[in-house]
Amino acid sequence: MRLTVLGGGGFRMPLVYRALLDDTGDAAGRCTELVLYDTDRGRLDAIRAVLAEQAEGRPTAPAVRATTDLDEALRGADFVFSAIRVGGLEGRARDERIPLGEGVLGQETVGAGGVLYGLRTLPVALRIAERIAAVAPDAWVINFTNPAGMVTEAMQRVLGDRVIGICDSPVGLCRRAARALGADPDRAGYDYVGLNHLGWLRRVVVDGRDRLPELLGDTAALESFEEGKLFGAEWLRALGALPNEYLHYYYFNREAVAAICQAPATRGEFLRDQQARFYRTAGSGTPGALGAWERTRLEREATYMAESREATGGWERDSCDLDGGGYDRIALAIMRAIARDERATLILNVRNRTSVPGLDEDAVVEVPCLVDAGGARPLATGAVAPDQLGLMLSLKAVERSAIEAATTEPGTDSGIARGAALRALALHPLVDSVKVAGRILDAAGVLARP
Predict the structure, then answer these.
(1) Does pTM top 0.90 for this prediction?
(2) How would you class 137 by CB atoms within 10 Å of its CB: exposed for 0-12, middle for 13-18, buried for 19 or more?
(3) Exposure check for the chain: N or C terminus, fewer CB within 10 A?
């Protein structure tokens, strides 16, 4: 089976390869060839050096080849992982810094920064979807690219339900909640609903019984894991649910913005500088690329959402949250379920159909799904609390305005594109002024695309 990774020179690629190496399932459904595509040959060479060290002593390791030719990468692919970063980490740093200059949140996927990232990424993602339709129409596409919900919905307009979006935040939340209850995370069931980076865990079912009320009533257990520390027991009890960690930017926006502004660098600036050092080292041709990657990865994981932890008193991440796994395991589980027709239930970004009342059938939502050879089908969630649905509807309007802006043909009517982009920014709950939205849009210059 051939797997193609778009953005194959990305820093997290060795996590995917590690998961492929550990896959001991039926050979008929196992990846035997890995194709890495990237626009940056230097990054490809660095990551190939890491993968070569990972494969040492592993006779069944998938063969690896790399290319900067998109059609060559796609041809013959059974699965395509899309993990691109248009504009690189320099673009992310700008996305974060420009809104902060206006006193509003600067973050990769949330608020104005997320909208800017989407506006820059969507045209490229759509062109990729068109090439997949032409060159590899039978391939399944698993989208890692952020903002994952927005990008998945745009790509589905070209490829339909063969595009499935993934994120590791929901599964991390679910597993932490189960462990706090003393339950086996693999034996529990989870009722989760939302959009990407905007969701809530509403039930944790162990042996047929919902134990979330028990967790909400136990302050010590509740505040023993990341989300409990981020949000506090009082607020979680008031909500009656456990929010995805990214909702900290909504519920504690003022504190989060203050913490980011006081930090010596934004997250994007930190990763830009940190990864530049890694790629210089790994691309030098000297041994030790895997060790350099692992040291960089551990530092990356330890500093994840550091500004939010600082805004809530300062605390270190638990060791079980530092292994870096998540995206890779979810993606592999999807591949196994589809290729081997092994049923699995996973929280994914898919077309709503009728799973979430209040959202239309084509809206991409993040909910538990049944996955098998036919793809991923969302499971019914039941009624959604008004506060949750309200935020979801607001953010869906933002996502669709961004898609409208990105899909306006260049040279037709720039006023349409700018109007939709302005609407995407100004309607976001974390942007407090139309004038601010306009200045952010002008500073970013994201509509000046080829």
Answers:
(1) yes
(2) exposed
(3) C
